[in-house]
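Allow me, if you will, to draw on your knowledge of protein folds for a short while. I am sending you one protein, given as its amino acid sequence and as whole-number tokens for its backbone shapes. Kindly check, if you would, that the fold set down in the tokens agrees with what the sequence suggests. The record follows directly beneath this note:
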Amino acid sequence: MMSPLPASKWNYSTAAHLLNRAGFGGTPDDVQKLLNLGLDGAVSYFVDYEKIPDDTAPPDWAKPNLRRADYQRQLQDLNRQERAALTEDEKTKIAGRRRDLQQQFQREMTLQLLQMRAAWIERMATGPRPLQEKLTLFWHGHFATSIVKVRETYFMWRQIQTFRQLASANWRDLLESVATDPAMLIWLDQAQSRKEHPNENFARESMELFTLGEGHYSEKDVTEAARAMTGWSLDRETESYRYRLFLHDNGIKTVLGLTGPLTGSDVLAQIVAQPQSSRFITGKLWKFFAQDEADPQWIEALADVFRSYNHNFQPFLRALFRSEEFYSDKVMASQVKSPVQWLVSSIRMLGRPMPPPAVSIEMLSSLGQDLLAPPNVKGWDGGLSWITTNTLLSRYNQASVLVMGQGELMASPGPGPGQAMLAQRANQMARLMQPVNVNHIVTREQRQDKDLLLASLEKRFLRAPLSQNHRQVLRDYLSQREKLGDDDIRHAIRLLLATPEFQVS
């Protein structure tokens, strides 16, 4: 069982740890507010987020995409005209109009994707419910679905909304919603599955990647589950899930020991009933919020707690964030920041506005985390995989842009159409960025005492003490300045953000 953190251990360091892991970090004032709430109050602030009003409005285009239906009609009309054309000149003109229409629609989709990514980053940085957004990010990586194949921004927006609405709800309810989500139906080809030819993609990945893990199901379980899931389909006219009874296999199936005329819902219920399902999902949550590795006995304890709460995530997370194990020395200051965590926490700690959307998105892309476009069905590996020679150099470079302003992003085009243009625009905007206002970070007294300044910067930006060598580098830099100006302090912050200690939380 989880042991509650003793009241004597609730201090500035543990409050900062909770702020970083359950949210996206913040300033010393933010940490102090959590500290003043006490452990239970601080955990409640994060976990009971539904009590906090959130009036964030959806984008104008976030509705069944009538523009897509209109586009399809125009395209079909052009195709009919081309077939009926009598001369090559007429066919060429029609082909040109079709190409222009396709390019126009693709530009609209690219702009919507830009807006959606930027709005989500902004919400993570300034929204009133940090844990809800942190969980939404987790589920996005867990049920990794990409715009590259889905191609519909509205479908991706709907999926993210599903993750947000059910972020801390019931495990089976979440699985049911994801299974019938339009983006997922396209992503894993479930919309194409029918009783004559069941598609096994979703059935397989739902067991291997989403709920059980390799070695905890058989090939027979996959083929039988695929049969049970036939009928889950997509209505392209209404752009919504539709159950098509005539596509469903009504025969007898056996999945994970359960036999009968099973439906997809029956299969998901049977999966959730497996003890391994609780181990698998709580283990992934522990990895996301705490540390990469965990003792099997600890994972079993997590699973037991999760089952005791009837597979509801909210009370499980409350117990997790109150546990002494979550605040152990081996967990605190041990997790490599994901690109999203790195960017959002940097913005919050610096107290600066979010960079222009194109800049923020390009920063994440160069660090290896394209929101709404995970690299594959497994999502992002996380942990030390975030750190390579190239991405580490990008972190240092981008830290300079965030602190000093007017810099280059080392931008490189990401996946999808229009990315080269966006990368170029991002660099143009980065050159116009303003530097950080250091008056929000240091006091007049700290400017006059370099030891006090260094201690203040460490407290604000780090969750582990600087190594002796890195502290000496900063001391040497500051000692060379007789009187510290704004740029001198910015350079000191830039150097601190380039330390290994800043790359972990």
User: Anything to note?
Assistant: The CA atoms of residues 111 and 225 lie 38 Å apart. The longest strand covers residues 232-235. The chain has a mean pLDDT of 93. Residues 170-291+293-328 form one domain.
